[in-house]
């Protein structure tokens, strides 16, 4: 069993419109845009990052907004719901706020003894807020939402699977433990995690496989402290039979990727060097930052990319 993984690092999804996406996360959710850069493989498409003040691992939602991308079709083999942690007693505020902003899919419920509010993103993304007692993380409050209500970071992700058995075994190998099982959902927890340390596995044997598109999660990333720990994880996964990519430099972290038995793409990302490697913390997410291999395209990209602010 691995002990290097500390919980979620980030979740990356796809969208249709960069400006709408930016507005939703910075205004409706009050998160901070911590980086404005481009897709390494498609530099004419943004890669936008939203999180807390510094973009700490376990807080960062990232997006590839592909213009005119077809809508994704929900199904198995994907992350169905990304859940954020909020203070206890705050869901009334969020329900009123979302209703006033016209946010769709609002549904209050209780899951594993926690109150939560489900809602949809601009592309039909599946989200929820869960009330958490004593979350030690510091929420970003400069997005217009007070400390009594602001998002701490991730709470969990829920994966829809036709059969959760092999994925559960993988997560246990990655250091997670089964915490509880209710109504066909198995909850796993990473002991001594980073606050974003829960994974829910939803078994849906009669549901068709998901068709990726706008509103779909592209991959979910798990956090390790540094490159040394990452290489230990990579070797252990490969020794177990997983096909793992070489280490890839993503400017703000190093990444490795592998496909899980249930079809979900996993990444293991380092906490280093962080989003302040090329911007002062006070100005994160303001300037367009380009990977070195795309720096020569700056003039073209600045003309092509949709302005994020109205």
Automatic annotation (TrEMBL):
Pfam families (UniProt xref): Glyoxalase
PROSITE patterns with a match to the protein in the record: VOC (PS51819)
Domain VOC: 7-132, 153-271
Molecular functions (GO terms): dioxygenase activity
Domain of life of the source: Bacteria
Keyword entries, A-Z: Dioxygenase, Oxidoreductase
SUPFAM superfamilies (UniProt xref): Glyoxalase/Bleomycin resistance protein/Dihydroxybiphenyl dioxygenase
This protein's record includes keyword Thylakoid: no
TM spans (from-to): none
Protein name (Swiss-Prot/TrEMBL): Ring-cleaving dioxygenase
Organism (species): Rhizobium leguminosarum bv. viciae
């Amino acid at each position: 069993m691995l002990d290097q993984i500390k919980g979620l690092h980030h979740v990356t999804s796809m969208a249709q419109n960069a400006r709408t996406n930016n507005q939703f996360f910075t205004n409706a959710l009050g998160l901070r845009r911590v980086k404005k850069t481009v897709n390494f493989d498609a530099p004419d498409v943004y890669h936008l990052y939203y999180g807390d003040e510094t973009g700490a691992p376990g807080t960062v939602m990232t997006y590839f907004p592909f213009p005119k991308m077809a809508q994704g079709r929900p199904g198995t083999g994907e992350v169905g719901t990304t859940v954020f942690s909020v203070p206890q007693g705050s869901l009334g505020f969020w329900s009123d706020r979302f209703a006033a902003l016209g946010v769709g899919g609002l549904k209050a419920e209780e899951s594993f003894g926690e109150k939560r509010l489900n809602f949809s993103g601009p592309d039909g993304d599946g989200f929820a807020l869960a009330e958490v007692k004593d979350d030690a993380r510091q929420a970003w409050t400069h997005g217009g939402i007070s400390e009594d209500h602001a998002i701490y970071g991730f709470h969990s992700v829920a994966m829809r699977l036709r059969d959760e058995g092999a994925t559960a075994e993988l997560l246990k190998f990655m250091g997670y433990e089964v915490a509880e099982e209710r109504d066909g959902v198995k909850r796993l927890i990473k002991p001594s995690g980073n606050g974003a340390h829960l994974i829910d596995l939803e078994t849906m044997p009669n549901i068709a496989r998901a068709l990726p598109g706008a509103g779909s999660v592209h991959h979910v990333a798990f956090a390790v402290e540094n490159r040394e720990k990452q290489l230990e994880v990579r070797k252990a996964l490969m020794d177990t039979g997983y096909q793992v990519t070489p280490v890839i430099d993503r400017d703000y972290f190093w990444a490795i990727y592998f496909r899980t038995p249930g079809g979900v793409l996993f990444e293991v990302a380092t906490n280093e060097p962080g989003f302040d490697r090329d911007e002062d913390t006070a100005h994160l997410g303001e300037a367009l930052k380009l990977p070195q291999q795309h720096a020569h395209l700056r003039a073209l990209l600045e003309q092509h990319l949709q302005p994020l602010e109205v």
